[in-house]
Amino acid sequence: MNATKSNCALGLLVLMFDGCAMQMVEKDAYDSCAKQGKKASIVNAKQSGIPLLIESASAMVMCLSASYITHLPAAFGAAAVSASNLGGVGIFAVTPGLIADKTGLKASDIVAEFGGHPVTLASDLPVAIDRVAAGTPAAVKPHRSSKELTLTAQL
Question: Contact at 8 Å (CB) between 140 and 103?
């Protein structure tokens, strides 16, 4: 077996054991957006079926240029995006070890409320964060994979 076929077979084997449907959807999304010079934001990702046997995955993907990404306060450690059809603010990225990460927020979460204030635009989220005094816990209500969660951010 030549090296190309061996690498391909190994790659497929690794994908199969990891549950490849979601990985393939995500990789296609990132590659497609990168070809446009944009970054992918994956929301409402869903996987179904039996991993390793029969599985399928789908996701809503937004390809975003840098001008659409709102960077939240540095200590919070996240970036967000607005989209009228999200029903909140999409978390685009989370910095490990900072407040957003410690709160349990993940990239692709849709935050509908922060500190008791509804957020519908990415520009609403830094304002809501700034309203909470340092050292005060704040309720964060994101949607993740069609589930509503309540997390607590310690600012």
Answer: yes
Summarize pLDDT for 41-68 with one digit per residue, the tens: 776 677 777 766 677 777 777 787 777 8
Sketch out the chain's domains with CATH numbers.
Answer: 18-64 (no CATH), 66-154 (2.30.42.10)
From the CB of residue 148, how many other CB atoms can be counted at a distance below 10 Å?
A: 10
Across the range 145-155, mean pLDDT stands at 91
Strands 137-144 and 147-148: antiparallel
pLDDT tens figures, 34-44: 898 888 877 66
Q: Which residues pair with 50 in a beta bridge?
A: 54
DSSP structural state of residue 66: G
Degrees to nearest 5, angle at CA 101 with 99 and 105: 110
- Residue 79: count of CB within 10 angstroms of its CB: 22
Closest CA to 112 of 79, 70, 151: 151
Instruction: Please give the model's pTM, rounded to 2 decimal places.
Output: 0.68
Instruction: With residue 109 as reference, give the H or E element that holds it.
Output: none
| 111: Cβ contacts below 8 Å, ≥ 6 apart | 80, 88, 89, 90, 91, 105, 119, 125, 140, 141, 142
